[in-house]
Write a structure and sequence with these properties.
There is one protein chain. The protein is an alpha+beta fold and 690 residues long. The protein contains 19 helices and 31 strands.
Length: 690
Amino acid sequence: MTHRIRHDFPLDQQHEGTTIGNGRLGLSVWGRDRLVRISIGVSGLWDHRGGMSWDGRQNYRALRAALARSDAEAIRAMFAPDGGEGVVPSRPSHIPVGRLELTLPGPARSVTLELESGLIEVVWCGGRLVVALLPADKGCFGFRVTPEAELVLRPAYELSGELRQLGFPPPRRDDDGFEQAMPADAPFQVRFRRRGDEVLCRFAQGDEPVTFPGSLTSVIRESRAYWRNFAAAVPQVSTPNPLLDELFRVGLCKFEAMTMADGVPAGLQGPWVEDDRRPPWSNDFHFNINVQMCYWPAYCSGRWANLLPLFRMILGWRERLRRNAEGFVGIPDGCLLPHAVDDRGVCMGSFWTGCIDLACGAWMAQLMFDYVRYSGDSDLLREGAFDFMKGVFNVYQSQLEERDGRLTLPVGVSPEYRGGELDAWGADASFQLAAVHRLAADLSAAAELLGEPPDPRWRELREKLPPVTLLEVDGRPEIALWRGEIPAESHRHHSHLGAIVPFNIIQADDPAWAEVIDASRRRWIALGIGRWAGWSMPWAVMLHNRFGHRQMTEELIELWGKYYRNRGGGTLHDPWIQGLALTFLRDPGVMQMDAGMGMVAAIADLFAYETGGVIHALHGVPGTWSAFEVRGLWLPGGFRLAARRESGRDTVELTATRGGALKLELHGEFYEGTPAPGETVRLTVPARTA
């Protein structure tokens, strides 16, 4: 079956365009009337100037003292970019490349992406424009268009004055393209070759050769082969909700396009960087949820190798992260990962609460160990992930204090709650506690895999440090942000509930936690969605799933699909409709990939998620669905799921690819055993309609 995604012109913004990518290069096709634009973006094209070095300024003891005396100036100075405020540029950033502008003989009508070929087709009055990108050659793309079409290549320098203000020299123009010098990094160039109705293009930086494939036909052939194989390998979902099916199917393709295993790590926007300005938040790596959510689809889809460029980049920063920890808490064997960095691990600076958010490292450690759990490949642990996990734990350990036989974390944050204000912190922040509990559990499991003795501190932490902080409100205990502080407003980060999702250390149906979960759930619902960002929505879908709100999962997915995407399907940080939620940004068109990728994982989560060592099947599937089918979803332990609903009954089949222990729950029915490799476990029960 062939799946096509079509949008009608006009598409007046780059992020309304139809996109393709190859893990480094990203194209967006958009425009109106006779003018069709092909914007060129590149992951990994950085202006590395600016940022903050960790040195004697950033010191945990000094920070605690400044917080105790409410010294905002001292804290601001600690985390200011190198050279102080007002430095241009103050932080590293991805750099725009430029665009191709095609003036067609007739007005463009529609643009279509065929998912099984990776080809974009623009239909105009009198012909077609076909755009293709090479999956393996990360700098090459091309298109076929009538020779009568006018072609202009416009460098980003000419599209905006921003690069000029940042000290970039004018590009050197030639008949076949341009070269752009960089103030502190290797220059880059874009070249094209036009022969008849074929145009081949090349992006190259530094010493990369400027060569072209033999023909556009070969580019199209390779694109078709790659995406046909991809479509056959990934899970398939078919439900009564066509929007949900589209979000899953298109989301998987976008995930592959921005994170191919032989590509470069993807930031907030992947390779689809604006062509006329530096991107919002530099298209950097935000580790307080955004990177994690961008990469979540790797697990359920079996595209685990797509995680490796990200992990290897982080592990390549080990010396820098060690120095961060040594400067901040004075230990030689720590890893301190700030919340926002460039591809060299350089901290963006300024936002002090993000700089000290220890859960950033713990959450990435969880992703690394989940890679091992899903893929069965423990080599990553030996190649540095285990040392990284231990280093992150050591930074937590250096800040823990023991009082009356219990451990406490005196300073912690709940991501972005109260921003960078002086009261944006507290003792025993629930998000931090949950993160380090998950880390300690994963360290114990990793040590067992590697045949290494466990560190007794991991067990001690789990025994002496509570997994969350509770506060009694109106006679009922609730999960608090930190000691003495309950959530008082709707917030885009659901971080105080992190013990439930994503860290999965408290089961929402655990009778021992029933009163706490119910009170916390009720407050979270009452506060509402008024301050949520796009990426808040998939996280909320997963929470509603755990809470048993099956119909709400579908409603939130639809809400996001309708109002947090622009008319071309681009994923937005803020909703485009007024009145749904208060906008966080002044620019309503800001695109980030995190929400779209998170929604892929949230949809997979409806059919199966694992917590407490148990795989819960079909927990989030709405009871109103009379039929559905899902095939090929991957789960921890190397199990692969197929499920369907027909004639009022639900059937789940789990096939063991490696063999091993399995605990499976389906609507209150349980299976526990150790299926052998290739063996399939099947459960069939009446469908849950409530």
